[in-house]
Amino acid sequence: MRVSDSDRAHVRQLLENAVGQGLLTLDEFGERFDAVLTARTRGDLRAVLADLPHSHPPAVTPGGDEPVRGRMSTITRRGQWTVPPQLRLNTRMCDTTLDFTNATLQSPTVVLDIDDYFSSTELILPDGATADLNGVDMLAGSATLKVPYGPRSPQLHLVARGRVRFGSVTARYSYGRVWRRIFG
Q1: Cα 158 to Cα 135: distance, rounded to the nearest angstrom
Q2: Under a CB-based contact definition with an 8 Å cutoff, are residues 92 and 72 in contact?
Q3: H/E element holding 106?
Q4: How do beta strands 120-125 and 142-145 pair?
């Protein structure tokens, strides 16, 4: 099974804990972390953790109860990815892009719960999709809706809610749609 960024982050955390407990040297951590960054499958991640006690790769894929989490990084979901009916985003000082244009939706309504500090979140929606950003509480930030609010689209209606502190959330169509409108 293919691994995601949050799977890699979970294994990185397990490796950091192993260093803190004296199970790995910093050199071993560096070698294993390089392997985590290039891992493509869960088998690759299991190999990195095989000799460590109580270390298991994550069993939950992002989008279930596990949030998409990031700290001082870039998070991107593009292309073919499966979007659950409810998605949690937990970020600190991140640049996040969630592109729904080629995603597989499990429901025509997607609820995005955001918990964010000092980040920018860009939500790219397919043609005809609608969004609602009214549930996002802002503190020294901005929420920009560049797609229709309603009536609800049968294709995708994205409902964002949660808290954004010192950041921004933007829901828009892809730039390709804008160019098609300009040039016919």
Answers
A1: 11
A2: yes
A3: none
A4: unpaired
Each residue of 9-24: b (16+ CB within 10 Å) or e? bbbbebbeebeeeeeb
- Amino acid letter at 75? I
Angstrom distance (rounded) from CA 73 to CA 91: 9
Nearest-angstrom CA–CA distance, 55 and 62: 19
Amino acid identity of residue 96, one-letter, is T
d(CA 96, CA 36): 21
CA distances from 8 to 41, 45, 60 (A): 10, 8, 12
The predicted model gives 112-128 an average pLDDT of: 95
pLDDT at 62 over 70: no
> Can you give the pLDDT at residue 179?
62
What value, to the nearest 5°, has the Cα angle with vertex 67 and ends 24 and 99? 115
Return d(Cα 112, Cα 134) in angstroms, integer: 12
Find the radius of gyration of the CA atoms of the chain: 19
Mean pLDDT, the chain, rounded, equals: 86
